[in-house]
Structure formats: structure tokens, C-alpha cells
Amino acid sequence: MRFIIQRDRLVQSVQDVMKAVSTRTTIPILTGIKMVATNEGVTLTGSDSDISIESFIPNEEAGDEIVEIKQPGSIVLQAKFFSEIVKKLPKDIVEIEVENHLQTVIRSGKSEFHLNGLDAEEYPLLPQLSEENIFRVPTDLLKAMVRQTVFAVSTSETRPILTGVNWKVEQGELTCIATDSHRLAFRKAKVETENTDHYNVVIPGKSLNELSKILDDHEEFVEIVITANQVLFKAKHLLFYSRLLEGNYPDTSRLIPTDSKTNIILNTKEFLQAIDRASLLARDGRNNVVKFSTLENGIVEISSNTPEIGKVVDEVQSQSIEGEDLKISFSAKYMMDALKALEGTDVQISFTGAMRPFYMKPLHDESILQLILPVRTY
Amino acid sequence: MRFIIQRDRLVQSVQDVMKAVSTRTTIPILTGIKMVATNEGVTLTGSDSDISIESFIPNEEAGDEIVEIKQPGSIVLQAKFFSEIVKKLPKDIVEIEVENHLQTVIRSGKSEFHLNGLDAEEYPLLPQLSEENIFRVPTDLLKAMVRQTVFAVSTSETRPILTGVNWKVEQGELTCIATDSHRLAFRKAKVETENTDHYNVVIPGKSLNELSKILDDHEEFVEIVITANQVLFKAKHLLFYSRLLEGNYPDTSRLIPTDSKTNIILNTKEFLQAIDRASLLARDGRNNVVKFSTLENGIVEISSNTPEIGKVVDEVQSQSIEGEDLKISFSAKYMMDALKALEGTDVQISFTGAMRPFYMKPLHDESILQLILPVRTY
Q: Which residues form the DNA polymerase III beta sliding clamp C-terminal domain (chains A, B) (predicted)?
């Protein structure tokens, strides 16, 4: 294998596939990056066996020569060293050559690195997915849907299925749901599907977080392929594979209250800042619980009290309070997470009593909903 | 105590004095910030008993009212909570009032915090320094002198005196020296002294690092007072006290070679980058040792080799090589630290053989010198 490549493109691709490489792997070759040079260009692959990322660098793009292949071939190089080396090479052009015994030379200007490579034949193959059923989602929408749900997955392995986000596709609509059993995040949107198939899968939260980091905002669309145990996200020159979680996701539809006794409309930012302040003096051990009470004249009081430190009382002027008066306690952290995930300047909160789950959504928007279970303190 | 204050000024002062507050202290009251309101303004103090920082906020500055004192007094508030609270207050104006039993109320807009305070009488007093002998250093020069020496202090407590920087004042000149016995950093400069006194003290490296962070680049001068066991840095509205290290600093003057057998002039940045690349494949356990050899035609070769990973060879074109040919090995980390501390585009390196300490300085500049002990590998 021998090729000459633009350094910046190589650095970008290495950074992308590095997101899948773990230093804590039981399969030693997965600490490496696989590089394959064909007559079309160079393909890099990184994987931790849960997530696999493939980045392709074409010979030519928009009339610019990016890679010049001298001799096709393949190699696996230690990701930790290879990624640091390419970043620090002195010139814009890099030559990579595999010599005898998998010895790989990386040349740029007067710098010459010799790295011990591994046989690319021993690198695990990526899953082969039948790409019959593809649906498309605009990149910015996909990133928003991930951001607005993935924070609510469980971080505990007691119920592994809850560490993922439930993705359902039905009648041209994608629904994403995440819950750690104390709160739930829900987001739906129309997507472009080519057929009437429907899916119901659970994607690991970690995979979605990595996907979000790697997706280029300049790309218009991401194509998505779902199979029985894998999901593939396809962007330009980039393939992102994730395994799916096995098991049935709980039916969450009955968790969301259908009626409400108190409805409050608040400015999202003012409310978020008041919760943030009240959480400062809320005890850590109890998930920063704050109290929320309706007062007269549309005022909402947020307070917390930890006798050994002190107490805080804050007031927020609501736009409207409809229905019964209310005193309720909840986790400040869950509330701040939920408010940050909402879009729009105003939030509508619907309560059905101090002991019942309550939910928030932007005004006049049914596509997103954040639900929180209260904490019993009153 | 009761006063009304501009939030931004309070936030700034709290952040400054926080730099001296440690959460790991054996004196519980030192986890707090002392606040004293007099008819002139408000003084905040933070201390970990090694470093103490005092920040004064005057009632009025440049015609602007900053503080309105309603009732003089004093209190100590938990630094961790107080600093978070002031940052997140909703309005530009804050009212602070001590009520009964040291209960302190912090009000801003509709937010009201009640914090349990401590009696300011129990807070340790700051050292009283006789300010007879003051010398002045421009702030940017002081920060440069700290930055160019403090990195070379020892991080090990085997010889505690080496964890500090040796400051000497003599004949209107300040000399700063730091060494961890593997390398040495030296910097001197003329300073404004009012008399013919001389000093020879050792200031803890940690104190100098904190001082650098806190000094405002907009201030022209810092006044320095040195006593037997304390040093005080005075900037506008800011006092920074540090204890001195006890013991005699070793005589380092004989460490610096007076002759040289090989003199090389290199572009500092090119050389630094080559060392950085060579260090990538140098073994961690041996302080990233790299080899340095003179070749023909004024070329310097930098290389390293770790058989299980690979090797790297880099070349740098020198401006001149005078004297004997040389092969020498040294810590890449020490070399990079030293090169980053130097000023100027070019560096002159003087060697007296592969086993002898060598030193670097900017071309035509005797005010700064970086010395490194080689490693025996050839």
C-alpha cells in the first residue's frame, strides 16, 4: 500500500473514526484504525464492536485531487499514536507506505515515522446491512431529536433497555422516547420513508451521543437503515453503525397524563434561571429537590431549604395560571434538563396534583414533551 | 451589616479571593470568605493559610457608586455556596444584610437567599507586614518572569525547598531561579527599588501560579514587600500574601557551564515542533527521551525509537552549528517547557559534551536562560 494524501482531510477522517475507538477493548486489534486504499480512494474504519464508523476519502472532490493512490492495499495502525502523528505532521501533504512485515512509513516534509502495523485481514468485518428500507431525516432535525431525548436515558445498568432511546417509525413519522423511570422525554417528527414499513427499536444512548458529535451540520440529510439488530446512519463519505439493544422497551404511552388540573405558562429562560438558583442550596443527596408553589396574582414561588446551609426563595411571574392551586416538589436537575431540551420562549406545564407526573411542552407544539415524576416532600 | 452593591464587582472580587480558598483545610472557617463593610467600602478575604488574598471594593470609583453602606459590620460566608449564588443572581444590584445570629440575607430582584454565616472575629488575621522596603515591577514583566521560571520547580516533596522559586534582589536587579535538579530556569530583570537592601527568599511555586492568574493585565505596576517569612504583592484594590519556604536554596550558579564546545542556532518554533513530533513515539516511562544529533550541512536530526511501537526521525535546518559534532539525549518534555518559556524567534543552544548540562537562551539576550541535564542513552 502506498498513497499520497492531503493532511487536513486525513486528520478529519481520523478524528471521525477515532470516536468509535476505545482503549478499553477485549479485542486488541480494535485499538487500531483500519486503512484501506483502493483505486477510488482511502477508507478508514474505527470500531469498539458496539459502534463502528467508516470514513471515505475520495481521490478527487470538486476537481481537487485529495488522494493519489500509488499502490492499493490495507493496514491497521494503533489509533492512539496514528491520530497524534497526523495532527502534528509539518507539511500539508502526507505519504503513507506499507513496507515489509506491516512496517508503515508516514512521511511529511523532513519527518519520517515508522509504525508497527497489524494485518488488516484480522480486523473484524462491519455488519452487512440490506439497504432496502431507507428513510431520510434532515441532519439538523436528527441532531435536535437526539439532543431533546438522549439526556433522559438511564445511566444505571439495572434495566439495560432504559439506557437506550426507543425509536419508532410508523406512517411516515419518527418518534423518539427516552426514560430513566423518573422522567421521560418524547419527540416526534415527519420523516421521508419510501414504503409503509414500521420499526420499533432501541438505540444505545451512547451511540446517539457519538453520532451527534460526528454529524456535519453542513450536510442536508442523513439516510437511516434499520435492521433487526443494527442501525446504520449514512452521511456523505461517512457510515455510522450501531448495534441495537435487545429486549422490549416498556410501553410509555400510559405514563403521560391525558387530563390536567393546573396549567401554567412561564417564560422558559426566567423559570430555568430561578430553578438553577434554588438548586444551589438544595441538598445534593436528594437530587437537588426544589419546591414549586402557586401564589396569588399569577406568581410562582420556587424555594429550597437545607437547614445546615441556608434557604432560598425565588419568584417567577407566570403568563397564566389556570385551575387548582398547587404545591409540588421535584428534582431541579431533571427540570433544568427538560427546560433546556424544549424549544420556544414559553413553556406550558400541566399538573394533575402534587403526587402525579407532570409534563411540559412549548406553547402550541405537540411534537415535543418532557415528563417528570414529582418527589414527595410536602 | 447591610450594604447594596453592584453585582459584577462583587462577582469579580469573590472570584479573586476564591483562588486562595481551599476545600481541604484543617481550619473550618477558612472554607469561608470574610466580608467586612466599613464606611469606605467592602473588603473580601480568602485564605488557605499559605496564600491569603484580600480584595477591596470602594464605595465609589471614577464617579460611579459601587457600594452603598447602610450599616458597617462583618461576616464569614461559605465560599462554595456564596460564590455560586452571586454569579447567578438575577439583577445587577445586590443587597447583603446580616440579621440575627449571623443569618445573612442576599437579595437581588425577586431572589432571596438566607445563608448561615460564621463570626468574622474567629477568622485568622492576615500577617501585618512592615511596608518599609517596597519595590515595584511592571505587571506584564512580573507575569513573564513567573511564567518563565515557575514550570521548573520540583513537584516532589523530597526536597521541599525546590518546590519554590528562588527570588533574589540585589543592586536594583531581581533574579528568579527554579530547578527540580534535572533542569533549571533563570530569569533576571531591572526593578525599581527604593533603597540598597537585598533579599534572598524562596516563594512557593503554587503561590506564584495563583498570583499570575489573578493579576490584571491592565494594571501597570505591582508593588512587592518581602519580609522574613512572608511576601506581599500589592495591586490596585488587591493584596496577595504568600508565606515563604524555610531553608536555604542551593547555590545554582556553579551549575551553569561557563564554556561550550558546540553552539547551535535554531528557529525556536520549528525546533519545538520537531521535538513535539519525536516525543510522540518516545516511551512515557523515561520522560519521553529523544535523541539529538548534528549532521552535515547544518542539519540537526531529532529522533526517538520505542521498538514495540515504532520510530521517528525528523530534521531541522539550523542557522549555524559551531564547534564539535554532537549526539545527545534529553527529555522532550523538559525541552518543550524550556523552548515555550523563551522569548524571540531564534534560540541559541550551548553544549559542552553529551554528558554535561546544556543551556538555551534567545539570541543576544542574557536575561533568560534555560538549562537541561541530558539523559545517558548513547
A: 254-376
